[in-house]
Specification:
Two copies of one chain form a homodimer. Chain A is an alpha/beta fold and 338 residues long. The first copy, chain A, folds into three domains: 5-48, lambda repressor-like DNA-binding domains (434 Repressor (Amino-terminal Domain)), CATH 1.10.260; 62-158 and 295-327, Rossmann fold (3-Layer(aba) Sandwich); 160-292, Rossmann fold, CATH 3.40.50. Helix content of chain A is 43%, strand content 15%. In chain A, the strands form two sheets. In chain A, strands 2-1-3-4-5-11 form a six-stranded parallel β-sheet, with helices on one face. A six-stranded mixed β-sheet of chain A has the order 7-6-8-9-10-12, with helices on both faces. The first copy, chain A, is elongated, with a radius of gyration of 26 Å. Chain A starts with a helix and ends with a helix. Chains A and B meet through helix 4, helix 5, strand 2, helix 11 and helix 12 of A and helix 4, helix 5, strand 2, helix 11 and helix 12 of B. The structure holds a DNA duplex (30 and 30 nucleotides). Chains A, B: This is LacI family transcriptional regulator.
DNA sequence: GCGCGGTGTTGCAACGTTGTAGGGTCAGCC
DNA sequence: GGCTGACCCTACAACGTTGCAACACCGCGC
């Protein structure tokens, strides 16, 4: 129904190929011809057919971004940055929400996609290392988040364990002695939670503090409500903590809400640290101390990695690269006070 | 490079079309043949080529979602809901960030897209009515946000003006008499701001309160920082307001931050209302009273409308539909106290 | 006057898929 | 025995595009 090269060619009285040449900016086209063709293009409102172009051997100009859930602010911010970075390469971004379900993550990686994409940026939640190995060789993939196995894909991440340690060391440095953790997860597939927990334990022992398993609260998901409930459980103890390290900012904001509800002063009675540095924490009351992973940079690197992969000859592809991104502590009112 | 029907056919010793039939679940294929073909498919790791399928006349299975910015929580939540709703129709969602720039919004609508999409859901920020009329007839479009002109596209929205009025009436009902507004915008293209301002003015006069232009603060964008700055300006007045209606939740959260910074009690001295009901407001301190637009429902309706359009014969397309979605007031601590 | 390189244009094939039309085989029925 | 219809499979064309090879024409230099 929409006009094709054929229709434009007929109207301009030239061959299909000449129209194609005009469209693609081929130099050796007589000015008069070019003008006539252009006129026909405008008159008919011709637009190149993306599917045909792609079939002919080109790229689709689309990359997929697979993440657990856009509704979580960290992933929304990440997605925004990815889209921005992709624009610089003239790419458009397709969103795939996995909801952290193993099955859907597996499908993604094993290439059961319905759509043609040039590459995939994947922020796995549940997928264990081995599954990722089954990735199809066809489309390049960049993984976000902690690398746990050395497979065929590129990878961009901060050092989760070290970052968690930094957060706990900060709390200990403030003189806190009973530092709780919110965000542990039961499933062994919850890599992020495990790494942050490992950092927490390492830092505790480094600071000469005892590890008390009862101060570690597990959650179903990383939402505000989970943080609020976990904090409530901690406050119900006979010996509540004097600091809490939450494995992401949402948990921390939920925890703070519970603390304030119960009249517990933050940070005077309980200091709170988060992780991710989402925008909410910069304006909440109190503002939230947190680990800032430089998400914009992660996004840019991921997209650039993908671009490099697409530029290179698949035959002589370089070995998978692993990029560590620096993190920083953003210290605000929830640990320092006003 | 990746295997095609041809390769599978060769390996299974059948025709290309038979393989195609197996892939598409055509019934009249001998069990033996089917098994052999399936074996070849598995062995070669065959995946249908999306571009070729689409070229052949099918749909792409992709819809585009154009919105100003994923980093703004309301749009992130909206995008998440859209993706979820699209899944039910087996669609994947392509994200286009416009940053509210007129030029980019115009490009989108005029069909300068590089990619083949089945439909477009568009949340315009800056685009005036007339521009939208130039939409290409080819791909159906659903607009989100207030309709200001009656063009060829479907449309889903809440009644912005009425909703803003409800918010202001609530504040007036609490006995507030100097109700400020944060979020006015200079450009005439900022339709949302204009409508909420109109609702504000209408409700004021309805409640017998004078309209004081100096209580209306304009902002550059709808972010927390803008709300914080605007609130600061209001507090610097000789006669600060006793309530503030912010045109979205981010402005409100920024305003609250300023209030607390300056030791102003919320809501005792100044009550604050927002608009959008983003998740942050449900856990902030104080929790935020706001207008809740039922974003999930908006998303579902938008996608369903698109689905209907795609199902119908373009020749006998129904007239553009306009769906009003109900809004509700979520009254929380920022106006009611604890 | 002939060959040569640059210019402007064209036809053909191919990308991978599916709809249509048709060919062949076989069982069942008059 | 021949006809019908169901079943299984295949050949061909077409979707819209672009790379390649080729062609015709031109002016230039020898």
């Amino acid at each position: 129904m929409p006009p094709g090269l054929k229709d434009v060619a007929a109207r301009a009285g030239v061959s299909i190929k000449t129209v194609s040449n005009v469209v693609n900016g081929y130099v050796h086209v007589a000015p008069g011809t070019r003008a006539r063709v252009q006129e026909a293009i405008d008159a008919l409102g011709y637009r190149p057919n993306a599917a045909a172009r792609q079939l002919r051997g080109g790229r689709s100009g689309v990359i997929a971004l697979a993440l657990p859930e856009l509704q979580m602010p960290y992933f929304a911010e990440l997605a925004g940055f990815i889209v921005q970075a992709a624009e610089r390469h003239a790419w458009t971004v397709l969103i795939d929400q996995t909801d952290g379900q193993v099955e859907r993550e597996r499908n993604l990686v094993s290439g059961l996609r319905r759509h043609a994409i040039d590459g995939l940026i994947f922020s796995p939640l549940a997928l264990a290392g081995g599954d990722l190995a089954r990735g199809e060789a066809g489309t390049p993939m960049v993984l976000l988040g902690e690398r746990v196995w050395h497979g065929p894909a590129d990878h961009v991440a901060i050092d989760n364990t070290a970052a968690a340690g930094d957060a706990v060391r900060h709390l200990a440095g403030l003189g806190r002695r009973r530092i709780a953790a919110i965000g542990a997860q039961a499933q062994s597939s919850a890599i992020t939670a495990h790494q942050r927990l490992a950092g927490y334990r390492a830092a505790l022992s480094e600071c000469g503090l005892p590890y008390d398993a009862s101060l570690v609260v597990a959650v179903d998901s990383f939402r505000r409500a989970d943080g609020a409930a976990a904090m409530a459980a901690l406050l119900d103890r006979a010996d509540p903590p004097d600091a809490v390290f939450c494995f992401n900012d949402l948990l921390a904001l939920g925890a703070i809400r519970t603390l304030l509800d119960r009249g517990v002063a933050v940070p005077d009675e309980v200091a709170v640290m988060g992780f991710d540095d989402i925008e909410d924490g910069r304006f909440s009351s109190p503002t939230l101390s947190t680990v800032s992973p430089d998400t914009a940079r992660i996004a840019r690197l991921a997209v650039d990695l993908l671009a490099e992969r697409l530029g290179e000859d698949p035959a002589e592809a370089a070995a998978p690269r692993e990029l560590k991104v620096k993190h920083t502590l953003m210290l605000r009112e929830s640990t320092l006070g006003r």
